[in-house]
Amino acid sequence: MARDAGVVTVRPGLKRALRRAFRRLVCALPIFLLMAGPAPGEGLLDGVDLASPAMTEAELTRAEVEAMLARGERDLSGRRLNGLDLSRLDLSGAVLRRAALNKAKLKGTRLAEAVLDQAWLLDADLSGAVLIEASLFASQMRGASLVGADLSGARVTADLTRADLTGARAVGADFSADMRNQSMGLMRGVLTSARLDGANFSGANLSRTDLSFASLKGADFTDALLTAADLSGANLSGARVEGADFDRANLASADLRGLEGEGRNWESAVNLGRAVRE
Questions:
Q1: C-alpha–C-alpha distance, residues 114 and 99, integer Å
Q2: Alpha carbon distance 64, 219 (integer Å)
Q3: What is the SS3 assignment for 80?
Q4: What is the pTM of this model?
């Protein structure tokens, strides 16, 4: 920065750095607004301008993303990648914290061990994506498609309201509430009205997860933890529940017809008498 006769000039390199910092601030601003609000699934999108450039535009092309990966650059934090077709790319281990990927195409994309904390993935297509041991903390994924995706071992405290996880694999995944972050509200997996038919949740931790009105027909909950989960209005018909723990789970109006296997702690479930049974 130089000063000449009362006029301040900014060197080109500094100008570019300032522009990049401003773009990232604009992209991150909605996240800051959300963090001051309620927990996922409880009005988080109120007041967020989803039609803004931060939520709809991309600052990179697929070719530029591929070039970054070829150089070994895997930090895409805060980047605007909305609407990009990133299908079948290998983004394993990539850092996409606070990135905007609304309506992006990520079909078959490898995101194993990727960090997608506080990322925006509204209506994104992640069908067949590999998200093994990925981190999805406070991610916004309403309406996303994860048909046949693999979330095994992933940490998921994301808002997946109305998302489609038909046939998804989430073996050993952790959707449970993060009790260490109560100042931010109850951070947990929210799958309200989601489609989860035939999904594999064997060994998964779904404690305190919101599965209200979700379709879980034929899903596999073998040895899963459903402690204090909200299953009110959910359709679990034909689900496999061998060894699943239903301690304090809310089963009001849940469809429990045709369950396979023996679940545990039915006696301490909430509203079991109001569930639809044989």
A1: 12
A2: 40
A3: strand
A4: 0.83
